[in-house]
Amino acid sequence: MVSVGTMVWLTSELMFFAGLFAMFFTLRSTQQEMWAEYSGRLDVVLATIITVILVASSVTAQFGVFAAERHQPRRTGGLLQFKNWGMVEWYIVSFIMGAIFIAGQTYEFAVLVSHGVTIQTNAFGSAFYITTGFHGLHVIGGLIAFLYVIARAYFSVKFTHREAHAAVVISYYWHFVDAVWIALFGVVYILPLLV
User: Fold this and answer.
1) Ordered domains of the chain (ranges, CATH)
2) Distance separating alpha carbons of residues 103 and 37, to the nearest angstrom
3) pTM assigned to the model
4) CA 46, CA 160: separation in Å to the nearest integer?
5) What are the tens digits of pLDDT across the range 44-87?
6) What CA–CA distance (Å, rounded) separates 18 from 23?
7) CA-CA distances (angstroms) from residue 54 to 44, 47, 73, 182, 185?
8) 50 and 105 in contact (C-beta within 8 Å)?
9) pLDDT for 92-132, tens place per residue?
10) Contact present, 132 and 89 (Cβ < 8 Å)
11) Is there a contact between 150 and 92 (Cβ–Cβ < 8 Å)?
């Protein structure tokens, strides 16, 4: 039931982000000069690096799911024996990568603000900060969920199907957040380079 509820909720979130994408496409078609000027101020290199990190965190989260499905909450071997890692270790790595993504996004926001690009500057600033900011809030929500699942694994007497299922459901959310970012990255950072 939790899985179905999560999927329904993520579908509603998809509709929310579709509205944000529509805002960007409308801006691009109606304000082409402003779009070109302000999109040129974005740090595509930094965005590419943090995108790769976020996508890689989806891979590590999936390894955590595989461990959870084996009912292996923690590693069974040495720290560098990755094949023996449990769900906790993979989710900690995913958490760190997600936190790096948020730090990179925060840094870019700070640089843009120092150059006078704020949410009040113009429609581009509003669209940029609203879309990437809401996505960032979703990433922070995922980071909190990772901490919840990790804590649950540590404090449970026995790692059961319920704990494993919670880890799987969190991975649905995390993969969704990553997929939305890939689309946002394409629209916000890559599309201006192609047109």
Assistant:
1) 2-194 (1.20.120.80)
2) 25
3) 0.89
4) 40
5) 999 999 999 999 999 999 999 998 888 887 778 777 777 888 88
6) 9
7) 15, 10, 23, 9, 11
8) yes
9) 999 999 999 999 999 999 999 999 899 998 888 899 999 99
10) no
11) yes
Cβ count within 10 A of residue 39: 20
- Token couple for 146: 């990772």
For the stretch 79-110, what's the b/e string if a residue is b when 16 or more beta carbons lie within 10 angstroms of its beta carbon?
eeeeeebbbbbbbbbbbebbbbbbebbeebbe
Q: Under DSSP, is residue 182 helix (H, G, I), strand (E, B) or coil?
A: helix
Phi, psi (deg, nearest 5) at residue 74: -130, 170
Q: Which two tokens stand for residue 140?
A: 């922070």
Contact 171, 65 (CB under 8 A): yes
Using CA atoms, how far apart are residues 91 and 194, in angstroms rounded to an integer? 36
* Spatial separation of the C-alpha atoms in residues 154 and 185, rounded to whole Å: 35
Longest dimension (CA), the chain: 60
Instruction: Judge contact between 124 and 36, C-beta under 8 A.
Output: no
Secondary structure of residue 4 in the 3-state scheme: helix
Cα distances (angstroms) measured from residue 45 to each of 42, 52, 58, 190, 191: 9, 11, 20, 11, 14
